[in-house]
């Protein structure tokens, strides 16, 4: 029997309302042809939306999800597309046709989602959504030098997990903002807010496999359930009465300050730290700490929230002018004037990812992951942490959504001045690997160095860039819960675990910084310029955040010509600085 997803069936459940009533031909903007140059603009719009609907309803099947072969998955999408009444009279599409077209749509929409999130963060009072969309188009054109013509596709996918703003960045330690964000994220997973609008649709947890399969089974009679509940409640009351009598006769236990029987604070903190450091089972400490699994889980939750609220402002802060000056000092000693750290991404496997979300969080390995973007310095201090994007996004897509440059765009940090090879520069930069774009704020290695100068530069850059790799390794070595797959069902809890571990990691770095650092900073004095790199403390940072200023700074950040010139100057600078060591070797 042929498969028809538009008839009543149990294979697909909870189809999105926005995809059940498809309206075509309402967008008159020119679009990229769908499968060839023969298609008209109206048919392109309808075909794109129908393909998106087919992909969403196939990948979000709460029972199957992505637990299917490659050919089976795209065959189901092609079948869904071909049997649709909206595709009546049109040419039948093969699975490979749907796959190729979807890859193009997905790539462009992911880039536009990053631009839209950046424009949303830069939104000021008085701007409406049309202004944000206009700025988003400007940003994507500035970053990728091409116009975005698939706005109708983005509107269909914006509430999806890969398109919604479900990530959190913790570069600044405003505890009030974090609390509000945590409350909003936690509230979005509650069933009572299912009717609050389109925004809640993006973060509402889909039904799990067992819950979906249970819908097809016959439920018990309500009267029988009520009778069973009354029986259980009567037994529970008898048990409570028996426990009260037993406690009244037993020897009284030690009470806490509120007069309640309980465990000491040391026991609870020890249990929470053991879970984070060793990723041990929740009931593993029951023998000598006398904590059950439920109590340990609650202790871990309260411990993480307390760490974030009490120490987040200090250990998740943006670099101060003194911090910037110290980083510039160390960067110049290593041969990179103006360098303030290394940036890279890490994937954390999510073992208990919901089946309906696995398709959007799984990479080539087939295991769902969550991305963590980090900026680390020479002492392994993590200055910037952006956690939450789905694992299917690469480093460039994560960069589009990351607020790593928001402080520079909004003019909230002092200007950095440094000279390389006799030229003055005013933008600090990060060391990266080869996937990052060639912007003025990124310096990559030379993939195939030709000559001794390029070879020496590649060696120095790759050695200095290992700071962020070492930070990832030390973070996972200190906290096994980050190294092993995440077992939580709730993404908000996973984000709190990562934030708490990064705060504790920075605490350890601050305590042991002088013990294992490879550089002598005893001669460095806070607040004073050193050598050619220094922070301009007289620079006015409260620049009005209008669109003109923001786009001007963004253009400077993405300047490829400045990147090329800076890289050439760094090659010459490193050759003059370390040529003797190279000759001795």
UniProtKB/TrEMBL annotation:
Q: What is this protein called?
A: Myb-like domain-containing protein
Q: Where is this region: Disordered?
A: 161-223
- Give the transmembrane region(s): none
Q: Which domain of life is it from?
A: Eukaryota
User: Pfam families, alphabetically?
Assistant: Plant_tran
Classification via InterPro entries: Harbinger_derived_prot (IPR006912)
Q: Composition bias, kind Basic residues: at what positions?
A: 207-217
Q: Where is the signal peptide, in residue numbers?
A: none
Q: What is the lineage of its organism?
A: Eukaryota, Viridiplantae, Streptophyta, Embryophyta, Tracheophyta
Coiled-coil positions: none
């Amino acid at each position: 029997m042929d498969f028809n997803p538009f008839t009543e069936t149990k294979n697909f459940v909870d189809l999105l309302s926005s995809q059940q009533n498809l309206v075509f031909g309402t967008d008159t903007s020119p679009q990229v042809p769908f499968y060839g140059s023969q298609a008209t603009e109206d048919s392109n719009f309808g075909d794109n939306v129908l393909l998106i609907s087919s992909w969403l309803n196939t990948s979000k099947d709460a029972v199957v999800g992505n637990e299917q072969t490659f050919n089976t998955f795209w065959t189901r999408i092609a079948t869904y597309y071909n049997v649709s009444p909206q595709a009546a009279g049109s040419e039948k599409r093969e699975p490979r046709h749907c796959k190729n077209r979807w890859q193009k749509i997905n790539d462009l929409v992911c880039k536009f989602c990053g631009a839209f999130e950046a424009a949303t963060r830069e939104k000021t009072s008085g701007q409406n959504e049309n202004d944000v969309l206009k700025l988003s188009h400007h940003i994507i054109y500035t970053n990728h030098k091409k116009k975005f013509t698939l706005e109708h596709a983005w509107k269909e996918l914006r509430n999806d997990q890969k398109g919604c703003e479900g990530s959190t960045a913790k570069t600044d330690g405003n505890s009030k903002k974090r609390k509000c964000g945590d409350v909003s994220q936690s509230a979005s997973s509650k069933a009572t807010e299912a009717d609050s609008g389109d925004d809640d649709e993006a973060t509402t947890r889909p039904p799990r496999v067992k819950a979906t399969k249970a819908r097809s089974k016959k439920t018990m009679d309500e009267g029988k359930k009520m009778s069973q509940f009354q029986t259980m409640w009567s037994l529970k009351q008898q048990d409570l009465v028996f426990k009260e009598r037993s406690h009244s006769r037993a020897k009284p236990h030690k009470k806490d300050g509120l007069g309640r029987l309980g465990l000491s604070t040391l026991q609870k903190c020890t249990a929470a730290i053991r879970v984070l450091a060793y990723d041990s089972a929740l009931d593993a400490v029951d023998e000598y700490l006398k904590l059950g699994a439920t109590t340990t889980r609650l202790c871990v939750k309260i411990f993480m929230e307390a760490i974030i609220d009490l120490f987040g402002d200090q250990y998740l802060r943006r670099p101060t002018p003194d911090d910037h000056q110290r980083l510039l000092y160390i960067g110049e000693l290593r041969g990179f004037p103006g360098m303030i750290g290394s940036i890279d991404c890490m994937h954390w496997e999510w073992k208990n990812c919901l089946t309906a979300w696995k398709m959007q969080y799984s990479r080539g390995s087939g295991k769902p992951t969550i991305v963590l973007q980090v900026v680390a310095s020479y002492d392994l201090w993590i200055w910037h942490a952006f956690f939450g994007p789905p694992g299917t996004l690469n480093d460039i897509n994560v960069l589009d959504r990351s607020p790593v440059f928001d402080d520079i765009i909004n003019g909230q940090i002092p200007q950095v001045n440094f000279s390389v090879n006799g030229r003055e520069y005013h933008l600090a930069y990060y060391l990266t690997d080869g996937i990052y774009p060639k912007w003025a704020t990124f310096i990559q290695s030379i993939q195939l160095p030709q000559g001794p100068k390029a070879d020496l530069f590649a060696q120095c850059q790759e050695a200095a860039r290992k700071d962020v790799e070492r930070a990832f390794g030390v973070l996972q070595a200190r906290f096994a819960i980050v190294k092993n797959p995440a077992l939580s069902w709730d993404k908000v809890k996973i984000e709190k675990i990562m934030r708490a571990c990064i705060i504790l990691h920075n605490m350890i770095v601050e305590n042991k910084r002088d013990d294992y650092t490879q550089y002598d900073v005893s001669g460095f004095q806070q607040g004073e310029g050193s050598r050619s790199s220094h922070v301009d403390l007289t620079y006015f940072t409260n620049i009005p955040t209008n669109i003109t200023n923001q786009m001007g700074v963004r253009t400077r950040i993405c300047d490829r010509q400045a990147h090329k010139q800076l890289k050439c100057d760094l090659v010459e600078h490193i050759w003059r600085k370390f040529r003797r060591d190279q000759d001795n070797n």
